[in-house]
Write a structure and sequence with these properties.
Blueprint (H helix, E strand, L loop, with lengths): L1 E5 L3 H14 L3 E6 L2 H9 L6 E4 L8 H8 L7 E6 L5 H6 L4 E4 L4 H24 L1 E5 L4 E5 L3 E7 L2 E6 L2 E5 L3 H7 L5 E5 L2 E4 L3 E6 L5 E5 L6 E3 L4 H7 L3
């Protein structure tokens, strides 16, 4: 886990640095006395997990900086470090992780650092759950689950379609169904599991069933009669 310190007061930066370095495993990437300078750090496409951010600063105040950070693809956890109580409501609006009032006690900052490390462990665990490993006996690939378009049964194996590629895995479709338990995956047929977010078009088929056109996949996927009702509910049809 890494962080930035953004505060125009050097003593405040030094105090934060002391506690972070001596009471946590959080790595300090850099520190800035000006939030404009900090934005240049992000222009280099660098990412951080946490930002300790003062509010009253020249050029660009901390709350404006936080609003910019909220638009980042990977939004860092924001901890406001300020002497002013009146911005607490605004901090809530930008979903700040915490609001640390100066002067703060040693116990308060140490507890905050522990909370941040606990949060980081939770995020890592969630990210691990969002991936799946597939093997064909010769190699193992790792995919993000939300990259998967469709899973097709092939006897006791499965063909997994993702992006514009596919991979034949040794896993059976029943095993894949257990692993792809997120609500955006749906069993449409005894031989198919699809990612509902990848559905581009729904064509009517015989016996009141459907054929689905999915993103980046040429083959159409059937929805069998056994799954029609649940599919309509899932797609709000």
């Amino acid at each position: 886990m890494n962080c930035l310190i953004i505060d125009d007061e050097q003593p405040s930066r030094q105090e934060l640095r002391f506690f972070i370095e001596n009471h946590s495993d959080i790595e300090i990437e850099d520190e800035f006395e000006d939030s404009i300078e900090a934005l240049n750090f992000f222009k280099k496409e660098q990412e951080v997990d946490v930002i300790f951010l003062d509010i009253n600063m020249p050029n660009l105040d901390g709350m404006s900086m936080a609003n910019i950070l909220c638009n980042f693809k990977k939004k860092p956890l924001i901890v406001f470090v300020t002497a002013y109580k009146e911005y607490a409501h605004d901090a809530f609006k930008v979903e700040a992780f915490d609001y640390l009032l100066k002067p703060y006690s040693e116990e308060r900052i140490i507890n905050l650092l522990k909370k941040l490390e606990d949060k980081n462990r939770s995020i890592i665990s969630q990210n691990q759950d969002s991936k799946i490993t597939l093997s064909d006996g010769e190699k193992i690939i790792v995919l993000k689950k939300d990259e998967i378009i469709c899973v097709k049964a092939q006897e006791r194996k499965t063909e997994v379609f993702f992006n514009k590629e596919s991979f034949v895995s040794n896993k059976k479709i029943s095993d894949m169904e257990k692993e792809l338990c997120e609500n955006y995956f749906f069993r449409t047929h005894r031989s198919y599991i699809i990612n509902l977010d990848k559905v581009k078009e729904i064509d009517f088929y015989f016996n009141n069933t459907y054929l689905l056109i999915l993103e980046n996949m040429e083959e159409k996927v059937p929805v069998s009669r056994s799954y029609i009702k649940e599919f309509r509910e899932a797609m709000n049809l």
